[in-house]
Structures are given as structure tokens and as C-alpha cells.
Design a protein that fits this description.
The protein is of the alpha/beta class and about 800 residues long. The protein contains 26 helices and 32 strands. Strands 11, 12, 13, 14, 15, 16 and 19 form a seven-stranded mixed beta sheet that branches. It is globular. The chain binds ligand ANZ and zinc ion. The site of ligand ANZ has 18 residues, from strand 12 and strand 16.
Length: about 800
């Protein structure tokens, strides 16, 4: 019979759906398993071949868990707010809701065609008012606890999207989405205080099972450092506070630098003699991104402030103050003491502006171009610190600063608060009202969701306000507190909002009283295994941990961490190893592969194409190879012999393969699991195969290629679906070979190999080695001096002429 993959795949997709085979049960006494993949943004392009890689991997895990007897939650949904949809809506004059509906329908049918075992009864959509009601509710709880605040700050402004971007959305100085230049602009923004959770987000990484590179990236992003805050007097009387990780180098501070956004510039405006030059410089740096400003290779720029000088607290020396954009307002205090002898950027700056360089740690080679910061060494030119090690000096100087009330120890984090507003339409409305008398007042919770109003145009205004600002009917409202006329907030939430808690909603997706019931959360949470892209490590993954910790603090969720385990997949590249992109013309459409080769081949191939954790290029030839494998599996059906236990010939390899596939799936080694199945198939070709063996083979293959396996099982007379068939077991003792082949050397040269039993004694091994015909021939006429037997490895026979 022909392998009619299209008919087989449609048949089983329908059967699974009919039987609701993948429904997670609300049976809270069964052991549970929550497997999660990142829900996609339903873009207009449809599914990319990159999407099915993590989906199939976790589908394999989910299917295996069902076979192991777990109540499995493997859900899917849509992260559907966002700019591309909105931009498409603007261009084509359709409502973004309609665009979203179409895109979701397409994605869903594509996912269905791949035989992914999602529980569609729990589908969520972040743009659904019954969903964003709870996103808004969480925001209000953050607001009530003082973790949401509004502030004017320099923000990244995309000149083309006319929209504020988070730092993470600015890549190499341009907008991540549209590639246009990004400038800095002062704007009033809603912010979330993720920094308040910095230490806990760092500490609790020790409690979770994340792959190491994810933990490292989060640690670096949080960027904890310990140093000192030091107060420098100035000739103006104002105290200028700086942050340093090297207070030990204070005697080497020969000048100071403040950021172009530092408020003291305005404060001192009347005293600064070259204010025009300073203003000009401020404007120049406003046009640069943080990345451009701090890039090491860029030549340093700056302006010396004329009229105000700083005073080094350790020696009361007056030193110049510069404005330079290599100092960022958003880190520490926005001001530094510069120690050119021991800091690369300060050194480059001092060289350019011909400023004094004083070495204060011996070991730091000042004149060398290839300069390295020197963390070890002995203090010199440093008064009361002379002769101490760097570590000792750090302690002593901080004691001194504290005694003199000039400074104290300080822990700093690179992590910034989260810019939480966008001036766009297609996002969750921020449920706050501004009243002249009462200030910002929350929309009462019983009035949530606060729905997006119908508008005619989704274009942001030219001054960068949201299109909602033009909807005066919607904007003008009454203060929920005092009833006076008041205005709604017109900013909407960023795309990261809805994805910060969606995994909670899957636990209880239809609840309209709470975001999910206590019972459901107690049972399903935490997520047991979450796989997603490395690119989400510092944004989504950190944001959602933050929200989850907050919800834990206010008693909404029962555990402090949302994800027990986190893994990450590599990207799929084009045939040549380059990134797949429309412009390169190397994009593979998953629909074509499913049509021409079948979903099972597609799944198998995506799991076979290389180490799951690494990037791998697409290969159409290898797709064909996977297809041939499935055809051979199909054809072998006709050769299956009767038999309800493994034959002696195949038994060892059966147990070994079960063990290998079982373990490889847990370790993300899908490719080697498939290789083991391929080699078992070859063994069947050589040794023959009986029903028991073929059945086990199909069970092992079923998470990878579920449709063909269901069909073969049915043809074998199986009446139950494989979905809940028990996962094959192996006998550890039968996975070890009882014989093995070792080399036999004569005077160190390999002459032959012999088969020995693993239990053989040294004497038995020696006997077998000497009896081997080639060895025996070589030994004739020789006198054996010594025989060295290394069990399991080698036999060496030392001889001399008799
Ligand atoms: C003096 C010094 C001497 C420094 C030395 C370093 C080495 P990390 O470790 O990344 O936290 N710094 C402080 N605030 C800054 C800002 N807003 N923009 C740019 N640079 C800033 O970096 C802390 C160090 O970066 C601080 O310690 C300060 O330079 C600089 F041998 O102070 B240091
Ligand atoms: Zn009011």
C-alpha cells in the first residue's frame, strides 16, 4: 500500500480533534505536566519554518508525558497586540482587530496541519477584552502598590514610527522594527519599577533550572555592582554626587564628567561661561543612542564647563568638570569621577583633552595602548592608602568617606525601570483617569475591561500622542473619585504586557471573576518546562518573572517563580547558512513542505537537522532523507512477523534504543534520538522484525511523527489511539552489551581483534586472544615473555624469538 501522507494526516488530525485527545483535564489528583512554548505574534506573513522547531520539540515532550501517564497542559495562544498589525491597518484601512482575526485564522490552520497537540480549548488572545481586562487589572495593582509611576525622561524616539521605544527595541542605534534612526526625546511616560525586584530576580535564579546561558544573560542584564557613592563639593557650593566601583582610586581622579542630561547644567546655567558650547553639545548627543555613546571604539567628545570646578574630597584639589556623552544619565548618578590611569574610557578622554593622568595602583601600565583595568596591585600616590592592596584600600576609603560624611557603600544595578507606555492605538488602554483635583485615579475594577474605542484613523498624531488623544468622547470622562470632569490616559501598554502573565491564564482561561482560580494555579503552576528564543531572555523572560513575583507578593499566585525549567532553541537558517529573509529569497514556507512531503516529514526533519540548541541551515536534501525513512517504516509493515516478545537477535538493541530515545528527549537531543531509531530500522532490515518489536518502534517514533504511527498502529489492529498508549520501558541490564570486541597487540602492534564476554576473567581473555588464528600464527616460533590484559580495552603480548 502506498504511503498517502496527506490522507493519513488529515484523518488523524480530525480524529484527535473529535476525541478531544489533547484536552488538559481539570482533574487535580493526577500528576500534572505543564509544557509551554512562547505564543507567537500572528504576523501577516504566516508561520515561518522557525516556529515549528520549538513547537515540535515541546510537542514531543508533551506527547511523551501523556504516554507516561501525566495530565498534560500544552496550550497555545496569540500575542496579538503590536505595531506590524497596526501599521498594516493604517496602510490598508482595515481595523487591526480584523487584521488580527485573519492572521490568527491562518496561523491556527498552519499549526493544526503540523499535528501539534495543543489544547485549543484553552486558546488565549491578548487582544481579547476578556483577556486584557486582567492585564489592566494587574497594572492597577502595580499602580496601587506604587510600582507604576509617571515621569518625564529622555526616551528613545523612533523618527518614523513616531513612537517611544524601550532600550531593547533600539538595535545599533536604529529602530528594531523599521530600521529608522532613533533620537532621544523628553517625554512623560508610565514606568514600572522592575528595579525594585532586581535583587530577587537575581537571587532566585539559583532556584530554577534554566540552561546556563540564559542565567548568565539575565545576571548580566540585571548587572549588579558594588561600589561607593561619593560626594564632591564644587566651587558653586552644590554637592556633585558620583558613583564608582573603584573608590580606591579616588586620589587618581583628575577631572569629573557629567552626562549632557545632568540637571546641574540648567542649575548652573548662569555660572557657566561657555553655556552656548554646552547647549550645542547637549543637542548633538540627543541625536545619539546609548549604544553609540558608550561604544568603546568611538572617539571621545566633550566640553569643559568653564566657571564651575569640582573638589576632590581626599585632597581638596580643584579639578575640571566636563560634559561628555560617554556618561549616561540613566546609570548611577549620571556623574563620574574620572581616573584616567585606570579606566579605559577616561584614559582615552584624558589623552584627547590633555588632562593629567596619575597612576594610583602599581601594575596598571598607563602608557600602553592596549590598556587593561587593574583590579589587583598596590596603592601608590594615594596618601593614607599607600601600600595597601586594592581590596584593602576599597575597605579603608569607604570607612574614611563614611566618617567624613563624604560617601558610602552603594550597590547599583544596570537594570532600568520598564518604560510602560506607547503612543499607539493597538495596545491595552492604560486604565487611569487624570483629575485636576485628585491626580491619577484608577478606573474602578468593576468597570474593567476598559475597551479600546472605535476610531477612524490609527495614525499617531504628529506630536507623538496616541491616536486615542483625538477621540475626545472617549478621553473626556468623570473622575471616578470626585466626579469632576477628567481625562483618560491615552497611552497604551507595550507589547510585553500581555505576554507577562499569559501562562497563568491558560490554567483557567474562561474565568471572569479572577485571572485564574487559586485551585487551578495551585495545581498547574509553575510551568514545568518552558522553551523559547534566546532573544527573549532579557525582556519577556525577565518581565514575566517580575510580574509573577509581584502577583506572588499580593497573594494571587502560590509560588515565587513562574518557570521551573527554561531551555532555548537555535535559529533555522537558509540553505546557505544565512538568515532566512524575504530580501535574500531563501525563505522556506512550511505549507509547501507539508504539502510536498507531509507534516510528519516536516516534524522529523526539523528535529533531525542538528543540535536543537544551535542554529542550523535548512537542507531540502535532508528533508527528502527524512521522507525516505518514513517510507521505509511504512513499507516494513508488510514484513512484520508474528511474535509478542522481542527476538533474541533484536532484544539488546530494542532495550538500548528505548533507553536512548527516552533520555535524549529529556536532554533536547532530538537528532540523536532519531538517529537511534534509524539505526534500529536498519537492524530490522538485517535481522527481521516481529510485531512486538515493530509496535515498540512505532511507540518510540510516535511523538516525532504522530500521524503515520497512529495509522500503522491501527493497521496492526490497535483500537486505542497512541496518544495515551504507555511509553515503552526498558530493562537496564539488557542495555549493556554482554560481548565486546577488543584489539590484540604483539609487541605493541595490533595484529587482530577478538570478541570477549564482559564477564570474562583476565585468564579467559588471554586464552581467547592467544587462540585467535592470526595471533596464533604470529606466535609460532616465538617465546611469550609477558601478557598484559586490560579488560574491556586491549591485550598486549610481549614476545622474543624462541
Ligand atoms: C572611577 C573608576 C576607576 C571607575 C576605574 C572604573 C574603573 P560598572 O562596573 O559597569 O557598574 N560610571 C559610573 N556611572 C556612570 C555613568 N552614568 N555612565 C558611564 N559610566 C559610569 O561601572 C561602574 C563604573 O563606570 C564606575 O566606576 C564609573 O567609573 C563608571 F579604574 O569610577 B568608575
Ligand atoms: Zn477627582
Amino acid at each position: 500500500m502506498k504511503y498517502d501522507y496527506t490522507a493519513i494526516e488529515h484523518k488523524w488530525q480530525d480524529k484527535w480533534e473529535e476525541a478531544q485527545a489533547f484536552r488538559a483535564e481539570n482533574k487535580y489528583d493526577k500528576p500534572k505536566y505543564y509544557a509551554l512554548v512562547e505564543f507567537p505574534y500572528p504576523s501577516g506573513q504566516g508561520l515561518h519554518v522557525g516556529h515549528p522547531r520549538p513547537y515540535t520539540a515541546m510537542d514531543i515532550v508533551a506527547r511523551k508525558r501523556r504516554m507516561e501517564g501525566y495530565n498534560v497542559l500544552f496550550p497555545m495562544g496569540w500575542d496579538a497586540f503590536g505595531l506590524p498589525t497596526e501599521n498594516y491597518a493604517i496602510k490598508n484601512h482595515v481595523h487591526p482587530e480584523e487584521v488580527t482575526r485573519q492572521n490568527v485564522a491562518r496561523f491556527k490552520s498552519q499549526l493544526r496541519s503540523l499535528g501539534l497537540s495543543f489544547d485549543w480549548a484553552r486558546e488565549v488572545n491578548t487582544t481579547d477584552p476578556s483577556y486584557y481586562k486582567w492585564t489592566q487589572w494587574i497594572f492597577l495593582q502595580l499602580f496601587k502598590k506604587g510600582l507604576a509611576y509617571k515621569t518625564t525622561m529622555p526616551v528613545n524616539w523612533c523618527t518614523s514610527c513616531k513612537c517611544v521605544l524601550a532600550n531593547e527595541e533600539v538595535v545599533n542605534g536604529v529602530c528594531e522594527r523599521c530600521g529608522s534612526p532613533v533620537i532621544r526625546k523628553e517625554k512623560s511616560q508610565w514606568m514600572l519599577k522592575i528595579t525594585e525586584y532586581a535583587q530577587r530576580l537575581l537571587d532566585d535564579l539559583d532556584q530554577v533550572d534554566y540552561i546556563e546561558r540564559v542565567k548568565t544573560q539575565q545576571r548580566n542584564w540585571i548587572g549588579r555592582s558594588t561600589g561607593a557613592q561619593v560626594r564632591f563639593d564644587t566651587t558653586e557650593g552644590d554637592v556633585l554626587e558620583i558613583y564608582t566601583t573603584r573608590p580606591d582610586t579616588l586620589f587618581g581622579a583628575t577631572y569629573m564628567v557629567i552626562s549632557p542630561e545632568h540637571p546641574y547644567i540648567e542649575k548652573w546655567a548662569g555660572k557657566i561661561q561657555n553655556m552656548d558650547a554646552v547647549r550645542e553639545y547637549q543637542q548633538q548627543s540627543a541625536r545619539k543612542s546609548d549604544f553609540e555613546r558608550t561604544e568603546l571604539v568611538k572617539e571621545k567628545t566633550g566640553v569643559c564647563i568653564e566657571g564651575v570646578r569640582g573638589i576632590n574630597p581626599v585632597n581638596n584639589q580643584e579639578i575640571p568638570i566636563f560634559v561628555s556623552d560617554y556618561v549616561l544619565m540613566s546609570y548611577g548618578t549620571g556623574a563620574i569621577m574620572a581616573v584616567p590611569a585606570h579606566d579605559t574610557r577616561d584614559w582615552e578622554f584624558a589623552k584627547k583633552f590633555e588632562l593629567p593622568i596619575i597612576e594610583v595602583v602599581k601594575g596598571g601600565d598607563v602608557e600602553k595602548e592596549a590598556f587593561t583595568d587593574c583590579e589587583t596591585g598596590i596603592m601608590v600616590n594615594s596618601g593614607f592608602l599607600d601600600g595597601l592592596t586594592v581590596e584593602e584600600a576599597k575597605v579603608k576609603i569607604v570607612e574614611w568617606l563614611e566618617k567624613e560624611k563624604k560617601g558610602e557603600t552603594k550597590v547599583n544595578y544596570k537594570l532600568r525601570d520598564w518604560v510602560f507606555s506607547r503612543q499607539r492605538y493597538w495596545g491595552e488602554p492604560i486604565p487611569l483617569v487624570y483629575c485636576e483635583k485628585c491626580g491619577w485615579v484608577p478606573v474602578p475594577e468593576d468597570q474593567l475591561p476598559l475597551r479600546l474605542p472605535e476610531v477612524d484613523s490609527y495614525e499617531p498624531t504628529d506630536d507623538g500622542e496616541s491616536p486615542l488623544a483625538k477621540m475626545t468622547d472617549w478621553v473626556n470622562t468623570a473622575c471616578p473619585h470626585c466626579g469632576a470632569p477628567a481625562k483618560r490616559e491615552t497611552d497604551t501598554m507595550p507589547q510585553w504586557a500581555g505576554s507577562s502573565w499569559y501562562f497563568l491564564r491558560y490554567c483557567d482561561p474562561c474565568n471572569d471573576k479572577e485571572l485564574a482560580s487559586k485551585e487551578a494555579l495551585e495545581y498547574w503552576m509553575p510551568v514545568d518546562w518552558y522553551n523559547g528564543g534566546m532573544e527573549h531572555t532579557t525582556l519577556h523572560l525577565l518581565y514575566s518573572r517580575f510580574w509573577h513575583k509581584f502577583l506572588y507578593d499580593i497573594g494571587v499566585v502560590p509560588q515565587p517563580e513562574p518557570y521551573r525549567k527554561r531551555t532555548s532553541h537555535g535559529m533555522i537558517l537558509g540553505e546557505g547558512g544565512e538568515k532566512m529573509s524575504k530580501s535574500r529569497g531563501n525563505v522556506i514556507n512550511p505549507d509547501d513542505i507539508v504539502r510536498d512531503y507531509g507534516a510528519d516529514t516536516m516534524r522529523l526533519y526539523e528535529m533531525f537537522l542538528g543540535d536543537f540548541e544551535k542554529a542550523a541551515p535548512w537542507s531540502q536534501n535532508a528533508v527528502k532523507g527524512c521522507r525516505r525513512f518514513l517510507e521505509r517504516v511504512w513499507a516494513l509493515f508488510d514484513q512484520v512477523q508474528p511474535g509478542d516478545s522481542y527476538t533474541q537477535k533484536n532484544e539488546g538493541e530494542m532495550h538500548k534504543t528505548i533507553k536512548k530515545v527516552t533520555e535524549d528527549i529529556e536532554n533536547l537531543k532530538f537528532n540523536t534520538a532519531i538517529a537511534a531509531l534509524m539505526s534500529l530500522l536498519n537492524t530490522f532490515g538485517d535481522n527481521g522484525v516481529n510485531q512486538a518489536e515493530y509496535k515498540t518502534f512505532i511507540l518510540l517514533l510516535s511523538p516525532f511523527a504522530p500521524h503515520i504511527c497512529e495509522e500503522l498502529n491501527e493497521r496492526m489492529g490497535g483500537t486505542e489511539m497512541l496518544v495515551y498508549a504507555p511509553w515503552p520501558k526498558y530493562d537496564e541490564s539488557k542495555t549493556v552489551d554482554d560481548t565486546l570486541e577488543i584489539g590484540v597487540q604483539i609487541n605493541g602492534k595490533v595484529k587482530a581483534t577478538v570478541w570477549i564476554g564482559v564477564q570474562d576473567t583476565k585468564e579467559q581473555i588471554q586464552e581467547k586472544a592467544m587462540a585467535e588464528p592470526k595471533v596464533a600464527a604470529a606466535l609460532s616460533g616465538m617465546q611469550v615473555v609477558k601478557v598484559i590484559v586490560i579488560p574491556g580495552r586491549i591485550v598486549n603480548i610481549v614476545v622474543k624469538p624462541a
